[in-house]
Design brief:
Blueprint lengths: L5 E6 L5 H10 L4 E7 L3 H11 L2 E2 L2 H6 L5 E4 L3 H13 L3 E4 L7 H14 L3 E3 L7 H11 L6 E9 L2 H4 L16 H17 L2 E9 L26 E8 L4 E7 L7 E8 L2 E5 L12 E5 L6 E3 L29 H12 L7 H20 L3 E2 L26
Parallel strand pairs: 1-2, 1-4, 2-3, 4-5, 5-6, 7-10
Antiparallel strand pairs: 7-11, 8-9, 8-15, 9-10, 11-12, 12-13, 13-14
Helix pairs in contact: 4-5, 5-10, 6-8, 8-10
Bound molecules: nicotinamide-adenine-dinucleotide (NAD).
Length: 397
């Protein structure tokens, strides 16, 4: 490659840093990963050793003039602090979702990035994977006709019972309820397919009266509390293109995880797999056309899906490496920097996700409809046909 890779460092060497570093170091040629840091030095030390990069401190990263881009994979409570520090230090930032816990904080980050003339982008980038890009192509190429209605549904019952699986029940205390953890996947998937949202309304609340019900949970028997944030929401969306949509997020039901992203149009229906994954995690994209009652499985038109469900564990320990291509959004931002084009996970898109979730919660309290302040550009589709080892070329557009 005769293009200068972008020097990157990662702050926050926790669970998901494994997948990021695996892909950033080994898969994306546009990225040159210099090092990683963490408040807990043992974590960054282990990651640095595993991936052959430097263990660094935050200050060392921020003061290194060669590092252009900081990847913020801290927990959500630290997102704005770390992002702010990196922007102040003159670095472009790619943050894990959501960019901030409140819309006001998110707006302040966006303003800072603009003032500094730096790029900011936030996960999720899963819609850039083979499954949702294939669905996007079907919608763009007219296979569903005019999109009239869409739905995005997540039923995930893990926070109350799941402590044994590593879920931190304490995150409720800072208001990081499920819409702030998972909402972005569904919102970004919808924006990818349909473009931005004009108005929202809806109902949302935190289900009171539950206790932690898993005996393996240190909080077993104690009440589940939320100081901020909701655990169940049903939002109504009106897209700028005229399509209507539902965003349903429920954390309190007893059921297996259920996820739906579907678009219903004048000529057909497209059904997408789980937007938490790039290549559908073994599920496929289905198209039903007018006059045919059988959904037809669509072959993927795009790359970045084939490594699902698992990337290998280099450490010999269980790593949360199931989300195959995390880091695509970072690579897209790096290509965008070098090619002087907009990156797909724009700051406006990250703001839009926070605004949608917070606005649905507020509308539920105020009995009203919210006119969106933000209106991101629909991210450009990836070029189709770049599969397997050529897949990264699709980001060079
Ligand atoms: N775990 C997953 O499966 C997963 C998947 C996708 C996205 N995410 C997102 O990625 C982010 C991180 O998730 P995680 O599961 O890796 O969390 P984690 O708690 O395992 O890791 C976060 C790390 O950030 C470090 N940290 C916090 N503040 C810091 C600071 N100021 N400076 C340096 N380090 C700091 C913590 O010490 C911790 O090691 C979250 O936003 C989460 O929503 C997680």
């Amino acid at each position: 490659m005769n293009i200068n890779p972008v020097k990157v460092a990662l702050i926050g060497s926790g669970h998901i840093s494994y997948t990021y570093l695996y892909n950033m170091v080994r898969q994306f040629s546009i990225l040159d990963v210099v090092g990683c840091s963490d408040l807990v030095p043992e974590r960054s030390k282990a990651r640095a050793a595993l991936f052959g990069i430097r263990q660094m401190g935050n200050e060392e990263i921020l003061s290194d003039p060669e590092i252009e881009l900081v990847v913020n994979t801290t927990n959500i409570e630290s997102h704005t602090e770390v992002t702010r520090m990196a922007l102040e230090a003159g670095k472009h930032v790619y943050s894990e979702k959501m960019m901030a816990r409140t819309f006001e904080e998110a707006e302040a980050i966006a303003a800072l990035a603009k003032e500094k003339g730096l790029r900011f982008g936030a996960a999720p980038d899963t819609y850039m994977g083979s499954a949702h890009q294939t669905a996007r192509k079907l919608v763009d190429d007219g296979y569903v006709g005019t999109p009239l209605m869409a739905q995005a549904i997540l039923i995930r019952p893990d926070d109350v019972t799941g402590a044994a699986a590593g879920i931190d029940p304490g995150r409720y205390a800072s208001g990081v309820t499920i819409p702030y953890d998972m909402g972005g996947y569904y919102i970004n998937a919808l924006i990818n397919l349909l473009g931005p949202v004009r108005r929202v309304s809806g109902f949302a609340r935190f289900l009171e009266g539950r206790v932690y019900s898993n005996p393996a949970n240190p909080e077993y028997g104690l009440p589940v509390e939320s100081r901020q944030g909701t655990s169940m929401m049903t939002g109504c969306l009106e897209f700028v293109n005229g399509c209507y949509g539902n965003l349903v997020i429920l954390n309190d039901a007893f059921s297996p995880e259920i996820h739906r992203v579907e678009v219903y149009g004048t000529k057909g229906i497209v059904v997408c797999p789980d937007p938490n994954f790039y290549g559908g995690y073994g599920r496929d994209v289905y198209l039903t056309r007018a006059g045919c009652t059988t959904p037809v499985r669509m072959p993927f038109t795009h790359g970045f899906g084939e490594s699902d469900p698992a990337i290998p564990s280099l450490s010999g320990q269980h790593e949360l490496g199931y989300n195959g291509n995390r880091g695509m959004g970072v690579a897209d931002m790096a290509w965008a920097i070098r090619r002087n084009r907009p990156h797909r996970n724009s700051v406006e898109m990250a703001l839009h996700a926070v605004e949608i979730v917070t606005a649905i919660e507020q509308c539920s309290l105020d009995n009203r409809v919210h006119e969106m302040k933000t209106c991101p550009v629909q991210p450009a589709p990836l070029a189709d046909g770049f599969l397997g080892s050529d897949a990264e070329a699709a980001l060079d557009f």
